[in-house]
Amino acid sequence: MFHVIFSVPSLLVIGRFLWPLHIPLLVKAGATILLLVASQYLLWSRLSSGSVFSPEFPRPIVILFNWASGAILLLALFQLALDAGTLIAMLVWLGSVVVPDVVRYGIATLAAVLAAIGVAQASRVPPLKDVEIGLRDLPPQFDGYRLLQLTDLHISKLFPQAWTRAVVERSNTLGVDVIVVTGDFIDGTIAARRDDVEPLRTLHAPDGVYFIPGNHEYYFGYDAWMRHFTEMGMRPLANAHMVIERDGRSLVIAGVTDRSASETGHPAPNLMAALDHVPIGAPIVLLDHQPKNAGAAAARGVALQLSGHTHGGMILGLDRLFAKPNGGFVSGRYDVAGMTLYVNNGTALWAGFALRLGRPSELTRITLRRSA
Fold it and tell me: Which of 2, 11, 102, 318 stands the most exposed, by the fewest C-beta atoms within 10 Å?
């Protein structure tokens, strides 16, 4: 399905942009081949590693493919807009309209530049984003309590050891009380990613580092990765919770497995098990990789749900395409029946389509406040 989806924009570019240009036939043929090769990046990824989710090319090649894929998609969108404008002009003037080559070269240049900006935005170490969230019944002992949410790191050839180390070093200086990772740590097997994830071993906070799996952990040996992350000093909250205490008052951090878990024979998310025997009256912060089940969490009395998975929709305007499969939740803060849902844009994103325009990555420092 991925191959078909990514082929459509390239075919549109070939048919509606490239072939109408007044250039030699041989140049058109060569450009057609390049476009078709670029459009099959995920096929080449699968051939390189056995999975479309783990391209094992050198990082510059991964960046080049992502730039080409992004430029093709943007050019296809611009070409559709140009065709629509041409059709409207024909209807208004009741005659044919010729689009000069210079216009086509202009939209191609714009697409290439925007794609370069988008890949640079996607592949950088993310900036800090501070978010304050008010919770009813938050004990005064936890007013000002700070959590760092990391999510969708997708450690891979695009986000290798040097990138991971930079994220960890920045995270460790932010003065938070606890760090939570809401899934999709990796793209690749332990054999492929062992060195790249190693900096996570030094991630630390006074009240610990807790994590849940995302859907990508199930693609690359879930049990082995869960053991590996635990051995690195992080604590899993797979349908479980932990309690943080301050002067006799409590804050609960709970977590569930991913919605895709049962597809690979692993325990499905179980909110009831995750909240079993939580202290009465303690505010609950729930870690759930996908935001779609936020309504169920609100019904169970969760005060705050932290999710990721959507990558914020990646491109402003196109982000609405991600809304329906994620319960209408794509990026930022939502009120769900009195519960606050925060959908993180992601610390990184999947290397199969690494483009961000208007939906930046983030290191998210969340400060809890008492609210009326």
Answer: 102
Q: Provide CB contacts within 8 A for 231, sequence distance 6+.
A: none
> Which residues in the chain come in under a pLDDT of 70?
1-3, 372
Q: Are residues 201 and 323 in the same domain?
A: yes
Q: What is the pLDDT, as a whole number, of residue 2?
A: 60
CA 337 to each of CA 253, 300, 317: distance values in angstroms, whole numbers, following the listed order: 20, 11, 26
Phi-psi region of 107 (alpha: psi -120 to 50; beta: other; left: phi over 0): alpha
The pTM for the full model equals 0.94
Q: Are residues 196 and 140 in the same domain?
A: yes
State how far the Cα of 181 lies from the Cα of 346, in Å rounded to an integer: 10
* HSE-up of residue 55 (Cα within 13 Å, Cβ side): 24
Residues in contact with 94: Cβ distance below 8 Å, sequence separation at least 6, in sequence order: none
Between CA 253 and CA 139, with CA 279 as vertex, the angle to 5 degrees is: 75
Name residue 111's amino acid.
Answer: A
Q: Smallest Cα–Cα separation from 89: which of 75, 103, 105, 76?
A: 103
End-of-domain residue from the set 74, 105, 123 = 123
Q: Are residues 98 and 221 both part of a single domain?
A: no
Residue 52 belongs to what domain range? 2-123
Token digits for 254?
């709970």
Spatial separation of the C-alpha atoms in residues 198 and 160, rounded to whole Å: 10
Which pLDDT tens digit goes with each residue over 50-90? 888 999 999 999 999 999 999 999 999 999 999 999 999 88
Q: Give yes or no for a contact between 38 and 87, defined as CB atoms under 8 angstroms apart.
A: no
The DSSP output letter for 123 is: H
